[in-house]
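User: Some background: our group keeps a shared notebook of sequences we're curious about, and every so often someone picks one and asks for a predicted structure to add to the entry. Today it's my turn. The entry only has the sequence so far, pasted here. Could you supply the structure so I can complete it?
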Amino acid sequence: MNHLGQPYVYKRLNDLRRRDAERYAENWRLMRQAKARRSWSLPRPGCWLMCQLGQLLVRLGRRLQGYASPQPAAAPNGR
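Assistant: Of course. Here's the predicted structure to add to the notebook entry:
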């Protein structure tokens, strides 16, 4: 009687494998869609370049603030 149960076991294993494959395919499809929506992201060299440009602009802004800050007025008697 053992040989009669084997087709059911194989069918059940096949169903489980198919369900796992469908779940994997669905996850893969969702991940691809999520990546497609992130069109704003830059590749790694672009991120590095943007970071360097940002640091340069911050340094330039600080330097400009230093020029714009009021200088101490010279005393009229030279002190």
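Suggested note for the entry: The longest helix spans residues 2-37. The chain has one domain: 2-66.
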